[in-house]
Write a structure and sequence with these properties.
two-stranded antiparallel sheet; alpha+beta; about 170 residues; 2 domains
């Protein structure tokens, strides 16, 4: 027993449109989308916002020094790279501390060690103390910088539409 489909209307137009996908330069389209998303991600560091436009909680350093959150020396911002090929694209960073800033840290215990034999000198509860090392809990709020915004999605859609119109 067989089955069949009957198409009515502009079948030639539909087939022409389907054929466009076969000849689409997927590598070039992926590269264009990757660069658009990378640029958008870098812009978030200037705006200090996540992909949804919500402002990051200002860092203590930025508040104290009048600087910009996540942009002390610009290493994280400058590490944002993109990769693309015919199968798709990725935007991200390989810096080890990037995940902490993206997702936050609820209370990691860290050890601070003195660089000299004189030790660390600090005031705690009104008393001066000298220690070779101290353990503290660090809480870092999430400041997402990776992800797709609504504008990114519109840019991706526009890039694909433009590529299909070129044929």
């Amino acid at each position: 027993m067989g089955s069949s489909i009957r198409l009515e209307g502009d079948v030639k137009g539909l087939l022409r449109r389907i054929n466009q996908f076969a000849y689409l330069d997927k590598k070039a389209v992926s590269a264009a989308m990757a660069e658009a998303v990378r640029t958008s991600t870098v812009e978030r560091f200037k705006k200090q916002t996540d992909p949804q436009g919500k402002r990051w909680k200002p860092s203590i350093r930025a508040q104290r020094e009048g600087g910009v959150t996540l942009s002390d020396k610009g290493r994280l911002r400058n590490s944002i790279k993109s990769k693309s090929d015919a199968s798709g694209f990725a935007v991200g960073t390989n810096l080890i501390y990037a995940a902490t800033h993206q997702q936050g840290e609820k209370g990691r215990r860290i050890t601070i060690r003195a660089k000299t034999s004189k030790g660390l000198v600090f005031r705690y509860k009104g008393r001066w103390m000298r220690k070779q090392q101290v353990k503290i809990a660090v809480k870092i709020p999430a400041r997402p910088f990776l992800g797709l915004s609504e504008e990114d999605m519109q840019e991706i859609k526009g890039t694909v539409e433009d590529a299909l119109r070129e044929d």
